[in-house]
Amino acid sequence: MKIWTSEHVFSHPWETVVTAAWRKYPNPMNPAVVGIDVVDRRVENGILRTKRLLSTEWGLPLWAVRILGADQTCFALEHSAIDPSKKLMTSQSTNLTFCNELSIMEKLTYTPHPSIPGSTLLKQEAVITVHGVPLSSYFEEFISKTISVNANKGRLAMEWVIGKINCEVQELTKSVDGLTASAKRCISEDLKSSQYHFQRPGS
């Protein structure tokens, strides 16, 4: 068994990071995730609980393909929970493909950073267990390194989505400002027209 852990700080508010987590894929920064399907979603006691099926392409090396038998689209099941009152998001996933030979249980936790205002702390943990195949310890080490590389790609993917969200907010703000300015001009012109008719001699 191999345990991998990591922490990362996003210089963005918790609400923004959680929104980005939902919009993370598809993403050019981490093309390994090729599909996401929502299996179930419900609200329980103010907590949004979601079950999703993730489709990924591992890109296994030849020696791993010989051990597992094939390099194919792999599936994982993800359970997530968002508690807005506590500002806590958790996500737990486990692989479905190759589950007889390989078990990968990964957990992510997003919380506001305890000492950096306006920032979000991401904690990640993965437990890798290989059983019933040769070179199990070597395989576990390889999977651990792969998870580490993908975690870095995932953080870049998050920043990419956050950038898109910020651009959308700016465009929306400009649009609202434009509509507000247009409305003010119309109101001003209507007032001037009303005053003209009211003050016109003989009226």
Describe it for me?
The chain has a single domain, classed as START domain (Alpha-D-Glucose-1,6-Bisphosphate, Chain A, domain 4). The radius of gyration is 25 Å and the shape is elongated. The model has no long low-confidence stretch (mean pLDDT 86). Strand 4 (73-83) and strand 5 form a beta hairpin. The chain has helices at residues 14-22, 62-68, 136-199; strands at residues 2-10, 33-44, 47-57, 73-83, 88-95, 102-112, 120-130. It contains three helices and seven strands, in the order βαββαββββα. A seven-stranded antiparallel beta sheet has the order 1-7-6-5-4-3-2. It starts with a strand and ends with a helix. It is of the alpha+beta class. Helix 1 packs across helix 3. One of its GO terms (cellular component) is mitochondrial intermembrane space. It holds the Pfam family PRELI.
What are its keywords?
203 residues; alpha+beta; Alpha-D-Glucose-1,6-Bisphosphate, Chain A, domain 4; 39% helix; PRELI/MSF1_dom; Protein slowmo-like protein; Slowmo/Ups
What is the topological layout?
Layout lengths: L1 E9 L3 H9 L10 E12 L2 E11 L4 H7 L4 E11 L4 E8 L6 E11 L7 E11 L5 H64 L4
Antiparallel strand pairs: 1-7, 2-3, 3-4, 4-5, 5-6, 6-7
Helix pairs in contact: 1-3
Organism: Dinothrombium tinctorium
Protein name: Protein slowmo-like protein
InterPro entries: PRELI/MSF1_dom (IPR006797), Slowmo/Ups (IPR037365)
